[in-house]
Amino acid sequence: IEVVYNTVNLGFWDTAGQEDYNRLKPLSYRGADVFLLAFSLTSRASYENIHKKWIPELRHYAPNVPIFLVGTKLDQREDKQYLIDHPGAAPITTTQGEELKKMALIQILQQSVLLKYK
Question: Does CATH number 3.40.50.720 belong to domain 33-118?
Fold first, then answer.
């Protein structure tokens, strides 16, 4: 992509938590300038994965690289009908998001594609 007339190489790795990539993941961290971690604001498992796996791992292998968290599905976190229709959904609170922020010294973004929040 081009940012202010400079070409920037942008690479995304989406392993979806597949264990087959565990050996290779640390190799992809070398040379990274930033990490972008996305998690669902309606999924306790997604939150726990960020909290217990990804942040500690990234801090171990790349302690000085900034981490940005993106909380997705913001529109569904407050949607009572969605929560009724999806009994396994467990909305992540603002307090929990702040805990992640403190843990990783990160910026947190919350978004909803449907509501176009940024």
Answer: no
